[in-house]
Amino acid sequence: MTKIAIVTDSTAYLTKEQAAAANITVVPIPVILDGTVYDEGVDITPAEYYAKLKTAKTFPSTSQPPLGEMLKLYENLKNDGYEQIISIHLANTISGFQQTLRAAVTELDGVDVTIYDSKITVKLMGWLALEAAKMAKEGKTVDQIINRLDDLRGTIDEYFIVNDIQNLVRGGRLSNAAGFVAGMLRIKPLLTFDPTTNKIVAIEKIRSLKKAYARVETLFNEALEKVDYPVRGLIIHANDPEAAEKWQAELQEKFPNIEFEISFFGPVIGTHLGEKAIALAWMKDFTKA
Question: The pTM is what?
Answer without folding.
Answer: 0.93
